[in-house]
Amino acid sequence: MKKRLLIANRSEIAIRIIRAAHKLGIIAVALKSDKDPDALYLKYADEIISAHDGLNEKPVFLDAPLIVKLAVENNIDMIHPGYGFLSENPEFAELCVANNLNFVGPSPELIRNMGLKTIAKDMAIKAGLPLVPGSNGPVKTEADAEINASLIGYPVILKAAAGGGGRGMRIVEKPEQLKRNFKSATDEAISAFGNGDLFIEKYIQNPKHIEFQILGDKYGNVIHLGERECSMQRKHQKLIEEAPSASVSTEMRSEMGEMAVRFAKSIGYYSAGTIEFILDEDGKYFFMEMNTRIQVEHPVTEMVTGVDLVDWQIRISLDEQLTLSQDDIKIEGWAIECRVNTEDVQNRFSPQTGLIDRISFPYGDDIRIESGVENGSIVTPYFDSMIAKIIVKGIDRNDVIKKTLSTLDNFNIIGLKTTVPFAKAVLKHNDFVNANYTTRWIDQTFNPELLEENEEEMIGALAACIMYASEYLQLSSDIPAYKPDRLNVWVLNKRLTY
Ligand code: ADP
Ligand code: ADP
Ligand code: MG
User: Fold this and answer.
1) Omega before 421 cis (within 30°)?
2) Collapsed DSSP state (helix, strand, coil) of residue 200
3) 3-state class of 99 per DSSP?
């Protein structure tokens, strides 16, 4: 009997998981939300379960009891949570297990321990990993925070113990800023994670974010698949990622990789997972946290190792033994991922919602597109603004930068603004070309003047003028009226059709 896998997520990652399920001969079942009823991923699924989550209720992807109820009613064997949403929620994993559903991920206990960064840090110390100086566990009061911060030395960073997705974090430069930030970070952590606990770390100036991908099975075998450089961040959220990292030498890779494996083994980890490190200006690295799920940027690792991470993640949860050994993992070439978010870069990356009139992706050798949208898709305010990822592989770093730039040139969208012009500006910038960027780069160096003039916007403005003039002046009928379609053809082909 074929297994039935329910995907408790949406958009591009749902399509990615459906593809992995099909490769394994597994039936892929998708959840349909009222907030995204015509989504592209639904077309790829073998079966669809309508969740009837209503426009004003929380989306089904956040509703653990509803997902489990629907799974049981529909004879589901396994649940893949994707990333975000419930992927790192131990209660959800527990509920799955209690209902005989195979949760594609590690055990609820591992998720719980790694989800609380203070516990994860304790376990990392025990495994001998270097840590950023910080408070010993959560700081309960402002006064406690003040004492810890002055011992650690300013600047410090307040972080939510249960944090994720860059939320519940505040950089505090001076003592007088502590009180205000303590309150706002606590409030944000309560509303985002239902847990207001904060801890404090030394704020590392101009750091790089380096993370190691690992795979472990249920029999104690663990390997690492090298690192990803994820320092191009805005508000602690990644925008462009690469694998490998230009800041990691071969020796460092094996040292950090071995450390990641040692940590994973020490906690009995299985499934795909990521161990995040922060690298300071002197090249010293510190354990930051572990993510117990597949990550948004997993494709760059797949591109340079040739290993299908989602395939392994599912196979491991089906009790398969890892047949890859550390020696089988070879890093070949260089890969870059650009997240395509519907955001107006000119306007402080404000989210854009509405109709994607037209969208077309480039294709070619070594180009991988992971998209959750198509022509006519509607981007709603209910979900994350990431609509696609453009991943490119080259023979080396210079090659992949050039290739990614020409790939991005052949991406077209009409209707909404995206982060693609931002990605182009970054890839052309000397700091990126020289791999001389840190997590502060966007704050310190990026400004909208680095963006190229937006051709589509100019054409849009011109079209509006033609339309206005032809309607208002009631020009003779042999001048064709403005039709969005014809204009789109013009934009897409970059030529005049009339
Ligand atoms: P999340 O769970 O939200 O991903 P992380 O602990 O991984 O939280 O931190 C997210 C980002 O915040 C990191 O990638 C890094 O850019 C920044 N950051 C976290 N801790 C520090 C620190 N001690 N010093 C400087 N930057 C930090
Ligand atoms: P990672 O740590 O994997 O690099 P993020 O922290 O950016 O990535 O990823 C987690 C985020 O993904 C969550 O904040 C959530 O809002 C978002 N998310 C979850 N599912 C989706 C989806 N289908 N499409 C886009 N974003 C999603
Ligand atoms: Mg993180």
Assistant:
1) no
2) strand
3) coil
Residue 486: what pLDDT?
45
Among residues 374, 376, 425, 370, which one has the least CA distance to residue 401?
425
Ranges of residues in the chain whose predicted pLDDT is under 50: 476-477, 479-484, 486, 488-498
Burial class (CB in 10 A: 0-12, 13-18, 19+), 458: exposed
Strands 4-7 and 27-32: parallel
pLDDT of residue 164: 86
Instruction: For the chain, give every domain's residue range.
Output: 4-104, 133-202, 208-450
What is the reported pLDDT for 494? 41
Is the CB of 138 within 6 Å of ligand 1? no
Total Cβ atoms within 10 A of residue 459: 16
What is the reported pLDDT for 365? Answer: 93
- Nearest Cα residue to 296 out of 357, 226, 348, 372: 372
**283 in Cβ contact with 315 (< 8 Å):** no
**Is the distance from CB of 207 to CB of 278 less than 8 angstroms?**
yes
H-helix segments, 79-230:
90-98, 108-115, 117-126, 142-152, 178-193
Residue whose CA is at the smallest distance from ligand 2 atom 14: 165
Q: CA 108, CA 386: separation in Å to the nearest integer? A: 28
Looking at 353-477, list the stretches that DSSP marks H as alpha helix, in order from N- to C-terminal side. Answer: 397-409, 420-428, 430-433, 441-444, 455-472
The residue whose CA is least distant from atom 12 of ligand 1 is: 236
Amino acid 218: pLDDT: 98
- CATH of segment(s) 208-450: 3.30.470.20
User: In the sheet that 78-80 helps form, which strands lie side by side, from edge to edge?
Assistant: 47-50, 27-32, 4-7, 78-80, 102-103
- Asked if 293 is an active-site residue, the reply is yes
- The fold adopted by the segment(s) 133-202 is Dna Ligase; domain 1 (3.30.1490)
Q: How far apart are CA 354 and CA 332, in angstroms?
A: 40
Cα–Cα distance measured from residue 269 to residue 282, given in angstroms and rounded to the nearest whole number: 31
Whole-number pLDDT of residue 496: 37
Give me the pLDDT at residue 468, please: 61
What pLDDT score does 497 carry? 35
Three-state SS at 385:
coil
- Residues having C-beta closer than 5 Å to ion ligand 3: 276
Q: What are phi and psi of 434, to 5 degrees?
A: -90, 10
Mutate to test the pocket of ligand 2, among 36, 40, 83, 229 (most ligand atoms within 8 A of CB): 83
Domain 4-104: CATH architecture, name and number where available: 3-Layer(aba) Sandwich (3.40)
- Could you give the count of Cα atoms lying within 13 Å of 58 in the half-sphere of its Cβ? 9
